[in-house]
């Protein structure tokens, strides 16, 4: 009876020991597996973290490279700035990406490749533009030299033309000769006395000049009193001379036909004249062509 009980107890012990071994082995296996998964997770975490930092570094490096391109070619600044903004957006996005999201990191790596290819395209474009600019600079240098040569030739021609114009104007210039100024009293009798003078008579002869233009032209006469004031009938009696408006005493029209022409004009005074020297200047075709002095006592 005791033997049977012992056998029964031994069986129970064996069963319990077996169960305990199974439990220990199971826990050991689970612990090992958990350890393996933990190590795998840490490795993958470190790798993902490294890849994320590499992506960020590449994006920052790309940003700087685009900035360099901008400084080298201002004409493409807007296009390059647009790509830089795209990089900034990607940098902001990647900060929010979880490390376990491998697909997102792969997506950003593809974006980097696209951006690098775009940059290569810009570099090729810029090299092409630089070559064109060098060629244009060489052409511009040649054109500038040609322009300077032409400019020098034009200056020389302009100088010659001015000299010719000066000669022509000199040849065309008409002068007044035989200028005679006299004072007249009543009944047009000559006088030397200022108090008796009623009119001032101006006579002169226009020279013959075949080079000057013919036709109806204006002659202006200025009579200055001893005090320097011009004898005038109306304050509006003005004409242009040397770029200024000056007063005149007499204005008459002449039909000049390139031949000698003797003319006399009278200035009738409305006031009592003072004694002294009266200066008479004659103007024709925008030039002063003669002068004379009348002395009244």
Query: Helix/strand-derived class?
Result: alpha+beta
Shape: rod-shaped
Helix content: 40-55%
Strand order, main sheet: write it out. Answer: 2-1-3-8
CA radius of gyration is 56 Å
Number of strands: 10
User: How far is the first residue's CA from the last residue's CA?
Assistant: 189 Å
Q: Uncertain spans, ≥5 residues at pLDDT below 50?
A: none
Mean pLDDT score: 76
Report the biggest beta sheet as strand number plus sense, adding barrel if it closes. Answer: 4 strands, antiparallel
Order of helices and strands: HHHEEEEEEEEEE
> Number of folding domains?
2
Relative strand content: 15-25%
Could you explain the architecture of this structure?
The model has no long low-confidence stretch (mean pLDDT 76). The longest helix is centred in the first third of the chain and has 71 residues, at 2-72. The radius of gyration is 56 Å and the shape is rod-shaped. The protein is of the alpha+beta class and 297 residues long. Strand 5 and strand 6 form a beta hairpin. The termini are far apart. The protein has 3 helices and 10 strands; from the N terminus they run αααββββββββββ. It folds into 2 domains: 2-123; 176-296, Immunoglobulins (Immunoglobulin-like), CATH 2.60.40.10. It is 54% helix and 24% strand. The strands form 3 sheets. A 4-stranded antiparallel beta sheet has the order 2-1-3-8, with no helix packed on it.
């Amino acid at each position: 009876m005791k033997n049977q009980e012992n056998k029964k107890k031994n069986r129970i012990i064996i069963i319990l020991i077996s169960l305990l071994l199974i439990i220990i082995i199971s826990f050991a296996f689970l612990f090992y597996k958990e350890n393996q998964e933990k190590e795998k997770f840490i490795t993958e975490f470190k790798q993902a973290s490294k890849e994320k930092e590499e992506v960020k570094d590449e994006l920052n490096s790309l940003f700087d490279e685009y900035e360099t391109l901008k400084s080298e070619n201002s004409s493409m600044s807007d296009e390059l700035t647009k790509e830089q903004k795209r990089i900034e957006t990607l940098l902001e996005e990647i900060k929010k990406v979880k490390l376990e999201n491998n697909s997102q990191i792969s997506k950003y790596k593809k974006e980097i490749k696209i951006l690098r290819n775009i940059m290569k395209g810009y570099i090729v474009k810029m090299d092409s533009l630089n070559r064109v600019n060098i060629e244009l600079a060489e052409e511009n240098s040649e054109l500038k030299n040609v322009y300077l040569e032409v400019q020098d030739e034009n200056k020389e021609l302009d100088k010659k033309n001015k000299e010719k114009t000066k000669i022509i104007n000199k040849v065309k210039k008409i002068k007044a000769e035989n200028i005679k100024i006299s004072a007249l009293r009543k009944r047009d009798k000559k006088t030397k006395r200022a108090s008796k003078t009623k009119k001032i008579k101006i006579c002169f002869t226009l020279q013959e000049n075949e080079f000057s233009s013919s036709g109806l032209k204006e002659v202006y006469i200025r009579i200055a009193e001893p005090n320097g004031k011009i004898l005038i009938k109306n304050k509006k009696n003005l004409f242009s001379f040397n770029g200024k408006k000056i007063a005149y005493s007499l204005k008459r029209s002449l039909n000049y036909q390139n031949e000698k022409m003797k003319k006399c004009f009278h200035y009738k005074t409305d006031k009592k004249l003072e004694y002294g020297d009266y200066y008479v200047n004659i103007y024709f075709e925008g030039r002063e062509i003669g002068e004379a002095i009348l002395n009244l006592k």
